[in-house]
Amino acid sequence: MKIDEFEQRLRDRVLIADGAMGSLLYETLGPQRCVDELNATRAEEVFRIHMSYLEAGAHVIETNTFGANRSKLAAFGMEDRVVEFNHRGVKIAREAREAAKHDVLIAGSIGPLGVVRPVREIPAGEIREIFREQAEALEERGVDFFVLETFGDSGELTAAIEAIRSFSKLPIVAELTYSEEGTTFGGTRPRDAWKILRDSGVQVIGANCSVGPQDHLRLLQELSEVADSFPMSAMPNVGFPQRVGDRVVYPKSSPEYFDLFAREAVILGARILGGCCGTTPEHIRAMVRAVEGKRPVHGARAATSVEAAPESRPVAAREPESVLWRKIQEKKFVISVEIDPPKGTSIDRVLEQVRNVMASGQVDAIDVNSGALARVGMDALSLSGALEARGIETIPHLTTRDANLIGLQAMLLGAWTVGGVRNVLAVTGDPPSLGSYPESFGVYEVDSIGLVKVMTRLNQGTDWAGKNLGGATNFTIGVAVNPLAEDLDSELRRFHAKVEAGAHFAMTQPIFDPDHWEQFLKRMGGKSPIPILVGLWPLSSYKQALRLHNEVPGIVIPDALLKQLEMAGGSARDHGFALARRLLDWARGARSSGIAGAYLIPPFKRYEEILDLFS
Hints:
This protein is of the alpha/beta class. About 40% of the residues lie in helices and about 15% in strands.
């Protein structure tokens, strides 16, 4: 369909699109590993749902291809079936159109690359290629226009638009998804979306998913105040779902409720209306009746009584308030000692050892490991809270392996408010296959870069979805960096991404040769952009060193050192501690290269032994 023809249709009438596809397939077939795969395995069910919406009077049906991009399909090992699933999706929709009793448009549905796209870094060129691959497949089979829907990140949405406009002249409907506070996951409000999208080559700007009809009216209200007569769309959820047993159930919102929504949306200037999760043919039938005979509003939008969504204003960036950060800013060389949480229920021995370490006056903080090598131990944030209650500053490690975005934020808010934790090291975490439960699965909704962004948002007083928290954390955010990574270019890219996301300091993997740091520093351009705590591990034996070098990811021990420890025999511990002392002296003298301190790893959890480095 040509753009001018599409725009003429929008001037002539309000178009009603279909409602939910995924939730109806869920109700019919139960949980499925991949809804897009059903185009190949259960085409008749997809066709049946298309027909139910057409029989309800829908003017537009969307292809069942929302997640049929290479990035999402890769999670199921089906990344090579992008063209197949998209072609089949269009084919089913075309067959439904041929069976319809009225004129129907087919919209090629394209969703984001995944819930974590705003947090995981994918090269811009790769993002555009992924979207182009899907869009080309949809256009090849004959869609009339594209619907880019449920995008939580405006940058990803513009990348998708650019990908389509690089080859296609079909119309584009661009929809972001918003929270009930009127912001996307990326913090964009409708008026901001207008500024970003108005000159991007799209024909309709709107919202879908996430919130119900009333919140969508507020979004349309705000968008209409800046978009003048530009066409808008709205496709709300039926409401908030709940879990009943092993099923997700949506509220039984009445069709009459959607009738009222459609009438008010048209007054605000909407040209395309439809439904998202939980909506049914009955909701669409009600909206078709509501707009029947009504012409779209042109020019200035009519005033309505819609209440604007409250705005959440981020807190201005502040200097972290932790004692550790203050010492770093005062150019004091800080020292942390790493401990592992106990595997059982008692913390008495850990507390005793930590008290002895801190009593030396040589140590500034205790950093608490979190599930190293994916083995079960007490939660690092909880143990850190117990230490903070005893006046001991901590740096708990927080891994993204074990909790989703909701859980991570809940843990961080509890650690800040209840536990008194002020520093956190963000790490992705070792995969479960390394640990005691290899049959379990890691969550990994975000990686360490994403976790830094989450904490930065919390420091600004909003959660990841942009909702106001009524107060802000002020974490000092630490990240890991490995100067001996196999792919140094990738390590540097990720390190700079962590810094850009809001990291305040970094902790290296253990270093056993100053030259390793110096070489990495040269690759960085001569100085680290944030303060560095260098990792030092006093080795106790040749066998320990050999195991670390060969079995523990990220640790590299020079061959010369391995030979020295082997030759040292029974005095290997003395040799290892002597080297650690020299490395500690080197770190103290390397302030000009960004080293602000060191974290020390005691041998075999005998934490008091680390004090031998200061004797």
